[in-house]
Amino acid sequence: MINIDTTKPEDLVKFTHPEAGYDCDQEQAAKHLTKGRTYTINFLQIYDWNTVVHLVEFPGEVFNSVMFDNVEVKPKCQESERNI
């Protein structure tokens, strides 16, 4: 599950839990997403009982946050580190 406290626009998430969420969430995801594929966060809407994910790749569509995991992006090496 993604960390809603630290996830921000342009972060990458992986669709890893297609069986999570409500039936309507699963049906929505099945129409658009591929298990194991990485997508880009546009923004989150955080409510009392759930969080809705808006993805750059699917404008106007919403997905349940429990279906995703954060993707850790390793920082690029500094130019000076590569020349050591």
Question: Between the first and last Cα atoms, what is the distance in angstroms?
Answer: 38 Å
Q: Which structural class do you get from the secondary structure elements?
A: alpha+beta
Gross morphology: globular
Low-confidence stretches: none
SS elements, strand count: 5
Provide the spatial order of strands within the biggest beta sheet: 4-3-2-1-5
Query: What proportion of the residues form beta strands (DSSP E)?
Result: 25-35%
- Which H/E pattern describes the elements? EHEEEEH
How much is the radius of gyration in Å? 15 Å
Summed up, the helix count is: 2
Task: State the helicity in percent bands.
Answer: 10-25%
How would a textbook summarize the main sheet?
5 strands, antiparallel
Whole-number count of domains:
1
Structure report:
The protein is α+β, with helices and mostly antiparallel strands and 84 residues long. It has one domain. Helices cover 17% and strands 27% of the residues. A five-stranded antiparallel sheet has the order 4-3-2-1-5. The longest helix is centred in the first third of the chain and has 10 residues.
List keywords for this structure.
84 residues, alpha+beta, 2 helices, 17% helix, globular
Write the layout of secondary structure elements.
Blueprint: E1 12-15, H1 23-32, E2 38-46, E3 51-55, E4 63-64, E5 68-70, H2 79-82
Antiparallel strand pairs: 1-2, 1-5, 2-3, 3-4
